[in-house]
């Protein structure tokens, strides 16, 4: 079944906002944690936060996982176009980091969907 346009549209906006809040171009506020936690731990916290955000979105909105995925992909494309047009990036590494944020976001949503079960149906763990 195809995902409704409305679900994809809302998922696009939400995914874009989450990506922007977690990794704003040229204003990476969480870099202040690097001296205390180190780079790997700090980036790990950011990616974990993206997964939690995906789970919260899936929990709060009964959208199909395909809608969240398509919306996230559209947000990624629009975001990367915006960065390319507005900010002269030093390297293309932002493409990788934003893609990783998207993967974490979708995995978080998938984990929540698996916990709750398919939209409009019972969880696979329900024996009724």
Folded structure, characterized:
The chain crosses the membrane at residues 5-23, 29-56, 68-87, 93-111. Keywords: Membrane, Transmembrane, Transmembrane helix. The protein has helices at 5-22, 34-37, 39-60, 65-86, 93-116. The chain has 128 residues and is mainly alpha-helical. It has one domain. The two termini are 25 Å apart.
Offer a quick outline of the entry.
This protein has 128 residues and is mostly helical.
Task: Give the helices and strands, then pairings.
Elements: H1 5-22, H2 34-37, H3 39-60, H4 65-86, H5 93-116
Which features does this protein show?
flat, 5 helices, disordered C terminus, mainly alpha, 128 residues, membrane
State the end-to-end distance: 25 Å
Let me know the largest β-sheet: none
Give average pLDDT, whole number: 84
Q: Give the tally of structural domains.
A: 1
| Unreliable residue stretches | 121-128
Q: Helix count, per DSSP?
A: 5
Order of helices and strands: HHHHH
What structural class should be given to the helix and strand makeup?
mainly alpha
Helix content: over 70%
Please tally the β strands and state the result: 0
Residues in β-strands, percent: under 5%
Rounded to an integer, what's the Rg over CA atoms?
16 Å
Shape category: flat
Transmembrane segments: 5-23, 29-56, 68-87, 93-111
Keywords: Membrane, Transmembrane, Transmembrane helix
């Amino acid at each position: 079944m195809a995902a409704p346009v409305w679900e994809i549209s809302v998922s696009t906006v939400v995914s874009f906002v989450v990506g922007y809040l977690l990794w704003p171009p040229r204003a990476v506020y969480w870099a202040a944690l690097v001296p205390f936690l180190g780079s790997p731990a700090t980036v790990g916290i950011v990616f974990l936060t993206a997964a939690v955000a995906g789970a919260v979105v899936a929990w709060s909105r009964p959208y199909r996982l395909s809608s969240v995925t398509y919306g996230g992909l559209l947000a990624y494309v629009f975001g990367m176009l915006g960065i390319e047009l507005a900010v002269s990036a030093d390297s293309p590494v932002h493409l990788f980091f934003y893609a990783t944020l998207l993967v974490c976001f979708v995995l978080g949503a998938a984990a929540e969907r698996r916990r709750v079960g398919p939209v409009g149906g019972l969880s696979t763990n329900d024996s009724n």
